[in-house]
Design the sequence.
């Protein structure tokens, strides 16, 4: 296949994991875009010989903002398919092919990784309950049927990526993406993926309390829009 | 000195029942009113905020000058006391301010993000691959657009 596949990573203070993640990704796709979201550690420096495109927000703007930056840049570079990937190493680069294939074949516009269709290793019980609640919340608020609403592993066709407008700079962007899939009528499919929870990814990840804030942010937005 | 000040206050109080509170606050509101009026006149066109400012200071001055005025308006609106009317107005103004500032904050936030994005893309660079050449990394840094 002649399609140019870009992987986009938003990284904030990820110097511990990012080098390994980028190296593993580069083995799978040629073009990797890392958006350093104003990290205060050596995230940018340690990628100096990674072969990735390095972008840096001068100030921290949040994961949603960083993803949008990376997506816009990838489009400017001529990407045909854009994959978003988490910086903390919880995703498996081997899943990318399964995510990208339906898009390359023109079967859908967006694919979403699902840890509940696939595997989630070492997922703490509280995390499982919380994510299931989030799925329920998403189904009621966004009216979109997904089994995993907050998975950072996704793939977009060029057209879908160009139409994507992530305005929720912080973590609520996951739900915003789902909203836009529905609003734009993009064909989407969930793909089983494997998530590996490590102590590092759990420490870096969202605290459970944050879910409450994200949920209220979304509701507030729906009310004021 | 103190006697004469007292005498002036006595005279004023006799003439118009002016309280010490009014004596202090009225000049202040008068100055603020005149200032906003001046800005209003000097401005090329009528702007909402400066008009609102002048009206607010005028209303404040009138309310201080004769507290009965607020009670009269309150009664007209079916509210018991002038002080209650002021509380309601204050609550409304506060809510309005919160919503206004929230929206403004959101706009500034998204402008800031757009700015950060612009800088990030303008200064994007491609890191060269390791000279040892990891498997599959055969990208030529020269094909990266600056």
Sequence:
């Amino acid at each position: 296949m002649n399609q140019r596949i870009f992987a986009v990573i938003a990284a904030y203070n990820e110097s511990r994991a990012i080098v390994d993640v980028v190296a593993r990704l580069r083995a799978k796709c040629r073009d990797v875009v890392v958006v350093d979201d104003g990290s205060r550690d050596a995230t940018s420096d340690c990628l100096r010989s990674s072969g990735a495109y390095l972008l840096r927000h001068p100030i921290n703007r949040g994961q949603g903002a960083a993803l949008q930056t990376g997506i816009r840049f990838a489009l400017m570079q001529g990407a045909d398919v854009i994959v978003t990937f988490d910086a903390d190493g919880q995703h498996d680069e081997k899943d990318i092919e399964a995510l990208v294939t339906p898009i390359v074949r023109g079967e859908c516009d967006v694919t979403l990784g699902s840890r509940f269709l696939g595997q989630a290793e070492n997922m703490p019980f509280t995390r499982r309950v919380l994510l299931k609640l989030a799925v329920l919340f998403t189904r009621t608020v966004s009216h979109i049927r997904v089994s995993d609403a907050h998975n950072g592993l996704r793939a977009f066709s060029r057209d879908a990526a160009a139409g994507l407008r992530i305005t929720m700079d912080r973590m609520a962007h996951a739900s915003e993406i789902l909203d836009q899939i529905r609003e734009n009528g993009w064909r989407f499919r969930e793909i089983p993926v494997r998530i590996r929870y490590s102590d590092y990814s759990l420490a870096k990840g969202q605290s459970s309390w944050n879910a409450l804030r994200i949920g209220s942010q979304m509701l507030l937005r729906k009310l004021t829009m | 000195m103190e006697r004469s000040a007292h005498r002036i206050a006595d005279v004023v109080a006799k003439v118009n029942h002016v309280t010490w509170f009014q004596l202090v606050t009225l000049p202040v509101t008068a100055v603020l009113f005149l200032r906003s009026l001046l800005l209003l006149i000097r401005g090329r066109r009528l702007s909402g905020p400066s008009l609102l400012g002048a009206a607010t200071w005028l209303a404040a001055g009138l309310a201080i000058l004769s507290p009965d005025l607020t009670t009269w308006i309150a009664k007209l609106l079916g509210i018991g006391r002038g002080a209650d009317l002021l509380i309601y107005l204050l609550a409304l103004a506060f809510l309005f301010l919160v919503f206004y500032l929230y929206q403004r904050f959101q706009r500034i936030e998204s402008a800031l993000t757009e700015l950060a994005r612009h800088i990030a893309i303008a200064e994007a660079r491609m890191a060269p691959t390791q000279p040892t050449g990891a498997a599959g990394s055969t990208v030529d840094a020269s094909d990266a657009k600056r």
Q: What stands out?
A: The CA atoms of residues 41 and 50 of chain B lie 10 Å apart. Residues 82-122 of chain B form the longest helix (41 residues). Strands of chain B lie at 125-126.
